[in-house]
Amino acid sequence: MSEILLEARGVTKRFGGLVALNDVNFTLESGSIASIIGPNGAGKTTLFNVFTGFYAPESGEVLVGGRSIVGLTPDRITALGVCRTFQNIRLFKNMTVLENVLVGAHTRVALRFWDVVARTPAFAREEGAALDRIGRLLDLVGLRGKENDLARNLPYGDQRRLEIARALGSDPRVLLLDEPTAGMTQGESRALMDFLRRLIRDLGLTILLIEHNMRVVMEVSDRVTVLDYGEKIAEGRAAEVQRNARVIEAYLGRGRAAGGAVTP
Predict the structure, then answer these.
(1) Does residue 215 share a domain with residue 254?
(2) For residue 59, what are the domain limits?
(3) I need a surface site. Which of 69, 116, 128, 158 has the fewest CB within 10 A?
């Protein structure tokens, strides 16, 4: 049986009088690609922020591998194996490709302050191991040979891949991607989805997406969860969710919902 890596139980998050998430339950099984979809303002990114420690819920519980993470800081949640990217690319623009991925890898480097200052043999070993691993990651994402390029000089698609490589540097078990195909052509989106499948196969990752590109969602997702006004209104396989009347209404409006379907 698949292991439940990430779980939300009755999560509620408010901003003043606005209920951004209302009693949301969610599970993510190992070795899968799952998607969270919904209209703008549905609470998708808020849920990601709760999962990764940027927001604390007013009530409910979030568990990683059966351990509650409510109240933990984002860096401690990353150390537990949950890492994310953002809708708007947040690279260190004036750092190189290599330096960006090194930042992501720092949570897995076991060095004391003195080792770094004195450049001890332990530092040399850890640095060499980190550089070897980063080289393999850059091969995996197609950025080998661009180690010394500044992030700001990369094409848009490569910047997306670099952001994923930086997240992978932390050696996550669960990778959360917020709008990974935003701004991409259909061909670029398809190539990225093929790449994500390789990550599951080659690295044993589990992936959770927020995604507006319905074609991508329907083609790649093992399971789809739909939020609307902070509530979960549907969940299941992509084809089932696509035909769900509440989902159609949320996307198209009550007047257009009859006989419709969410168009990929």
Answers:
(1) yes
(2) 1-81+174-180+206-264
(3) 128
